[in-house]
Amino acid sequence: MCGAVYEMTRKVSSRCFKCYNLLNNTQKVEWNNRGFSTLHALVAAAVSFYLVMISELFNEDAHNSIIIDRKSWLSDSMFGVSIGYFLTDLTMILLYFPSLGGKKYLLHHGISMYAIGLALLSGKAHMSILMVLFTEVTTPFVNLRWYLDVAGQKTCNLYLYNGVALFVGWLIARIILFIYMFTHMYFHLDQARSIFTLGFYSMVAVPSVVAVMNVFWFWKILKGIVNTFSRRKHSHSENGKTD
Question: Where along the chain do its domains lie?
């Protein structure tokens, strides 16, 4: 899937976007790479939202089994696809290191594959992994920001609107959702302790590491939003003086 979308992104972009042909080879690789990154993010977010919020798979009153033991063929399939995506993206990062991402991306992808693989093989904690996978919903905004940047469109309104959407999306999906997840884990701590030892400590450690990374990136996004508004305010002030 990643290879097919990579090639599709390359062919469509070379024909439809003039700026694509002006990029250097490394930028073209990252442009294409972000194509399958965006597709995976949309699929992962949609499947995770459906399983956690719409289906009755994790409804406490719908089944006799405890939540931490619940799974479905769809969650298994999504985990398999996600491991394939993270493995492919990690390979690309290593091949072009550090052009496509630094050590933080290696850490993020590494622990993501570990946690998803552990849940897939054990059949435990699918709800927690799905909630973490839902945070991928912010990835299309991150990618669009990069696309507009390399295309020389940082001054257009879409860049600003996308930045605001990224800020709001990150706040909801990667900050507030993690607070809810840790709260849910606390109130179901007896279920978490019922699984194997490695699984329990992984449930505590992996989301904690990801949460720290999310807060770090959120701070950078916040500073970016403030700087953008400051530049625009200064620009409008200068234009007013000129007029």
Answer: 1-235
